[in-house]
Amino acid sequence: MLRPQDSPTRERRSLDGLWQFRLDPDGVGREAGWWRGRLQETREVPVPASYNDLFADAAVRDHVGDAWYQTTVRVPRGWAGQRVLLRFDAATHRAVVWVDDVEVTRHEGGYTPFEADVTAHVRPGEPIRVTVVVNNELTWESVPPGEVEETPRGRRQVYFHDFFNYAGLHRSVWLHSTPHAHLDDVTVVTGLAGDSGTVEYRVGAVGADGLGVRAVLRDAEGVEVATAEGASGVLQVAGVHPWRPGEGYLYDLELSLTDGPDLVDSYVLPVGVRTVEVRGQQFLINGEPFSFTGFGKHEDLPVRGKGHDDVFLVHDAALMRWIGANSFRTAHYPYAEEVLDFADRNGIVVIDETAAVGQNMTLAAFALGRPKVPTFSAETIGEAGHAAHAQAIRELVARDRNHPSVVLWSIANEPESDTDEACAYFEPLFDLTRELDPTRPVGFANMMFSAYGKDRLHRYADVVMLNRYYGWYRHAGDLVAAEEALEAELTGWATEGKPIIVTEYGADTVAGLHQVTPLPWSEEYQVEFLEMYHRVFDRIDAVVGEHVWNFADFATGPGTSRVDGNRKGVFTRDRRPKAAAHMLRRRWRGTGG
Ligand code: GCB
Fold first, then answer.
1. Residues 501-540: pLDDT tens digits?
2. For residue 427, what pLDDT is reported?
3. Helix, strand, coil percentages, rounded to 5, for the chain
4. What DSSP state is assigned to residue 458?
5. Is the Cβ atom of 568 under 6 angstroms away from ligand 1?
6. Atom of ligand 1 nearest to the CA of 331
7. pTM
8. How far is the CA of 19 from the CAs of 49, 169, 278, in angstroms?
9. Residue to mutate (ligand 1; options 159, 162, 299, 354; most atoms within 8 A of CB)
10. Rounded CA gap, 23 and 501, in Å?
């Protein structure tokens, strides 16, 4: 599936804006066929956005089940004779889509795109009614997992991860056109040898028997640097300008489907020429050791929830530059593609994560005070959950494999990782990821309960990724004991011979809360906590990455350990710096101020 784009042969029309919206708390709309006509008793909601925080209404915020969206759009007159597609960049967590009275597609998983060929259901120049039912329920079969509880007060969603279960149409919706004979897939793999580069490409095409494929690579000035013929090939780039951290140099790969002298279809893919490799305890980008500085982030904003927003895309990146962050992890799900495009153009390094979070029932029992159930079993995360996870990996790699910014796949966050069941569950998922993309290392973020000596999954991973909270969930307020414990554990991990990225470390901090003697929740404690971690990191060569948890404060479900959400942000939710931001800036930029 190629993204919608405007090219000499393709066009797109955005469906973003205000849509009609109706919650379906009793779950009657599917039976009643709400897509068959104008949706009744609606209010307007913006797309893209989560619906939860728009109305200051607990029934909307905590809704469990179906939510209906509807809009109309006129198919451009000029699209006669073209294929017409309806594409959703995401619908969280699943959706069914109708064009007028006809179901055209359904999709499972809240953070990857899907589309339907609607050519047979539209007439160029005429309007269509687009109806979508978006369902936000998390179950043992979904990624992430959860459980819907029936209570006397209605249905309640329980989930095992630490961020609010925002739902809705979080990303853009498109109507777009392609020719009937068309390119439908492209993969690039890049290489570097001295000052020459290679761009290996492979395209898929439909209805293309007897047609030719031509590939033209242009540099950032638009100058043609290499060409090739055929559905796959290797372009040689003499005097290559590599993509590198801090400098997102991109070439354009123009792919054309041709019929003799005639152009049938055309698609342009930005390409960064770079290599990624794990060698010993180093993480190499373009053959040079790379150290990750930055954050685990979230897609999370006041009012919008997880709705993608270009304003905050630009602003967050500016703050990351200001502070000296060179990278981030898409905790805990694939982010909007606009975010990766921006990272590509700006040389920001990305650890790309699936939505597999909350697969740890020991942690869930501890955090939610629930009886412990097995994580991986026929009654909990079983075959269906495994299949959904494998599909989530397939869709993530298919969507993001051509982004130079993405250097490492994270296939899960803090899963159970110390049991036979976890090994049986994860080994095939690591294999699958490598089979889908042999060019990037693969890892998962390990949780403290499976500390060094206990974890059994790291043997499948190329990089050790650790989320650690010594000084917070353990040894809270005692940074001396925390420092000893952290150093002892990291020293153990360092003997594994793999690079270590500390993918989370952080302390909840209420902005404006100050203490003379640093105590948990104060700005001073956050600073001393992070400084303690840095002392330890600097003593252990295998540590090649530090990602503070979190870039900004973010919304969570209710709970006694959260005050208006998770406060481990280095910035507040509205992006004001806490004292730790200035400290990090001194460390990461080496500016002394
Ligand atoms: C973690 C999780 C993250 C939480 C964080 C916390 O280990 O990966 O999702 O938000 O801890 O603050 O507890």
1. 999 999 999 999 999 999 999 999 999 999 999 999 999 9
2. 98
3. 25, 35, 40
4. G
5. yes
6. 9
7. 0.98
8. 11, 10, 47
9. 162
10. 42
